[in-house]
Design goal:
alpha/beta; Rossmann fold
């Protein structure tokens, strides 16, 4: 079955994001794996029993797809990365945003996490819109050599939801796009056409000075009412020096637009 992995820290934010995991699994005609990782402190005493009780309560809230509960002990990033290799098609993860606790996978470490897992990840926030039918996906053009991985993820989601994909390119005055970026743009167009996925090419002039790409992308997605932004979680050579800050800004964007990541 098309299983969706959902790591949870058992917080209210994670509980809200759980609805996204169920929504995706139901649309994929799949199932959900709820994963919680106990650290050294919470693994003591009644910690495991309390976590199991909360997980079982959360499982009882989900009735649109079969649910499996997984409780592990260890380093949360290592355990989640290891579990991502066990046949899941997608991971859904809820982030507390840039002010989340440093030790939490849902705070400042979210970018590190999505780079460690072996499957595409959908990052959502507490205020991400529900329900979300993923009618429109904004995919910024990028020069990554592994762009096919993002195209695989976008195509998979778009086919199940009937999405239209906007291939978004920011045009800066006096700046020529690299050959790699233009090649990937054509690759995006050809792949979506071959898959029969509705798509639109957007070439938007930059109206203000901006070295990065996150703000214009978020602004465009918000203006058109996009349901999702699709990005590579790793840096391209072209923007490596600013990539981490830009990608963190996208993952924790203020409007709460879900972000689909691949690497």
């Amino acid at each position: 079955m098309n299983n969706v992995l959902y790591p949870t820290d058992l917080s209210e934010t994670a509980q809200g994001g759980m609805a996204y995991a169920e929504h995706m699994a139901a649309r994929f005609i799949g199932s959900v794996s709820l994963l919680h990782v106990l650290d050294k402190q919470t693994a003591k005493g009644n910690g495991p029993q309390q976590a199991r009780e909360v997980l079982d309560a959360h499982r009882a809230m989900l009735d649109r797809a079969p649910v499996e509960v997984i409780l592990r002990e260890g380093d949360f990033m290592q355990e989640i990365a290891a579990e991502s290799k066990s046949g899941h098609v997608l991971m859904v993860c809820a982030t507390h945003g840039p002010r989340g606790l440093k030790q939490s996978l849902f705070g400042a470490n979210i970018l590190k996490l999505v780079r460690k897992v072996t499957i595409p990840t959908l990052v959502v926030q507490k205020h991400s819109p529900q329900p979300n039918m993923f009618s429109t996906i904004v995919m910024p053009v990028a020069s990554h050599t592994a762009i096919d991985r993002l195209l695989d993820a976008v195509s998979f989601v778009a086919k199940h939801f009937g999405s239209k994909v906007h291939i978004y390119q920011l045009i800066r005055p006096g700046e020529d796009a690299s050959p790699e970026l233009l090649e990937n743009k054509l690759r995006m167009v050809n792949r979506l056409a071959a898959e029969g996925i509705p798509h639109k090419i957007v070439e938007e002039p930059s109206h203000s000075f901006s070295v990065g790409f996150s703000w214009p992308t978020i602004d465009y997605a918000q203006r058109i009412g996009a349901d999702c932004i699709a990005i590579m979680s790793v840096a391209s050579e072209e923007y490596r020096y600013i990539a981490d800050a830009e990608k963190e800004r996208l993952l924790t964007n203020e409007p709460g637009i879900p972000v689909l990541c691949a690497h």
